[in-house]
Design the sequence.
């Protein structure tokens, strides 16, 4: 099957700033109970996804372009750029913010641990 990703805008994601764009690569039901999100996410300059915790799930990010500040579960902040991967383990929290001049673009997969 070939199709376009479903586009969705969300404001103040997890209490973050601004509006974030989601391009759903597959829908949750197409993950057959193994996960709930597989999407390309675009965080414009000044926007962010706020701090949140994944219970019984993991969420890897793969940064495609731009740069951002990733806050890890221990509170440490890391600059991320194209080619970086971030792994959020079960029961860990995280957030990500774009303080750069261009869109921060990454792939995210939320799946059961």
Sequence:
């Amino acid at each position: 099957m070939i199709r376009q990703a479903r586009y969705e805008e969300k404001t103040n994601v997890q209490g973050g700033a601004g509006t974030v764009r989601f391009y759903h690569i597959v829908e949750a039901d197409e993950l057959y109970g193994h996960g709930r999100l597989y999407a390309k996410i675009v965080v414009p300059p000044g926007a962010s996804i706020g701090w949140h915790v994944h219970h019984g799930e993991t969420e890897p990010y793969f940064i495609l372009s731009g740069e951002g500040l990733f806050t890890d579960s221990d509170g440490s902040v890391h600059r991320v750029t194209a080619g970086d991967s971030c792994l959020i383990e079960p029961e860990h929290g995280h957030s990500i913010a774009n303080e750069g001049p261009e869109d921060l673009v990454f792939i995210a997969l939320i799946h059961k641990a």
Observations:
- The domain at 6-112 is CATH 2.60.120.10 (Jelly Rolls).
- Strands lie at 6-11, 19-26, 35-43, 48-53, 57-65, 67-71, 77-81, 85-88, 93-97, 104-112.
- The chain has no helices and ten strands.
